[in-house]
Design brief:
About 10% of the residues lie in helices and about 65% in strands. It has about 240 residues and is mostly beta strands. The protein has one domain: Porin, CATH 2.40.160.20.
């Protein structure tokens, strides 16, 4: 997956650079070519990790994060091969209750806490894309570029409840509302089915590595693949 991510990233940036360098010579104008409204999911797994006051680390198994967003692609040609710029933004919100546990080698699970939390994530990106449309009704594409994630995690003191063990076994003292920003790179590959009237539906996979540090409330690391279904329009 890392090799695919790197290859798509370098390929997308190379074509985006070529498009900029040849812009003055191109006869085609840069116009909106594709609009996508996307709904997708990410397996968050053990993305949320906390470190208590004793320095011990515990992680919680989050359920999937659900994303909704929009992407637009500005291209320089209406032929089979296209290249240009892609930009878009996504949002994910989660209101959940998660359990953190600690195990001792000889005793097994000896401490658990339950934490109610609200998590909000904004993910915006802009980069280059390339696509190939061998038939009128079908195309494949890849894109890559910089991405920016803004996240906020809200936990109140009364939202932390002991499920097993005694007070202090997991000494977790979260902040009220913590916010962090992380910048990185993204890569996306996908396909579209294009109807005669311009309506488009398709699917894509997106990879972006991000880590949000929420101080006393822990760290959220999002580095799995996101999977999307999309509806949109071809211009």
């Amino acid at each position: 997956m890392k090799m695919l991510f790197t290859g798509v990233l370098l390929g997308g940036l190379a074509f985006a650079g070529a498009a900029s360098a040849q812009g003055a010579e191109a006869e085609d104008t840069w116009d909106l070519r594709y609009l996508q409204v996307m709904l997708g999911t990410l397996d968050a797994g053990d993305a949320w990790t906390i470190r208590d006051d004793s320095g011990e680390i515990s992680s919680s198994d989050w359920s999937d994060l659900i994303y909704g967003g929009v992407a637009v692609q500005l291209g320089s040609s209406t032929g089979k091969f296209q290249y240009g710029l892609e930009t878009g933004g996504m949002i994910s919100f989660k209101n959940d209750t998660n359990v953190f546990g600690r195990s001792e080698e000889d005793e097994g699970l000896n401490a658990q806490i339950e934490v109610e939390n609200d998590f909000l994530l904004l993910d915006v990106a802009a980069g280059g894309f390339v696509s190939y449309r061998p038939w009128r009704a079908f195309r494949v594409y890849a894109s890559a570029g910089p991405a920016l994630m803004l996240g906020t995690l809200f936990i109140e003191d009364e939202d932390v409840e002991i499920r097993r063990g005694e007070d202090g076994d997991i000494d977790f003292r979260p902040g009220d509302r913590e916010t962090d920003v992380d910048a990185g790179l993204y890569a996306r590959v996908g396909f579209d089915i294009i109807l005669d009237n311009g309506f488009v539906f398709g699917a894509s996979a997106r990879k972006v590595d991000g880590e949000l540090d929420f101080g006393n409330s822990g760290t959220v690391e999002l580095d799995d693949v996101q999977y999307f279904l999309s509806l949109g329009w071809s211009y």
